[in-house]
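Dear colleagues,

As part of the handover before I leave the project, I'm documenting each prediction I ran so the next person doesn't have to rerun anything. This entry is a single chain, and its sequence is reproduced below.
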Amino acid sequence: MQSSSPAEVHAAADAYLIDVREAQELAQARVEGAHHLPLGELVARLDEVPRDRTVYVMCHVGGRSAQAVQYLEQQGIDAVNVEGGILAWYQSGLPVVLGEG
């Protein structure tokens, strides 16, 4: 499974970021521009995931996103896990939107 650090993903030009956390988690903190696709809805909403580019997947600390990446890879999608999730993203000093925003 491919993985990248939050800094690598943030630095990637035009990275397509999918956040697989639940809505109440996004209300606490989220990355601006990330596409919200809860893990539990991934199979039903697979057609929303681009197949013509790499997608980066994040969750809170990396467990759910690793599951999502594994599934997406099985579907032939180039997917990369964001190491440490939004927690590592925030701790790296990268921009996040806090609160309901």
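The first helix runs from residue 6 to 11. Residues 13 and 80 are 15 Å apart (CA to CA).

All the best with the project,
I.
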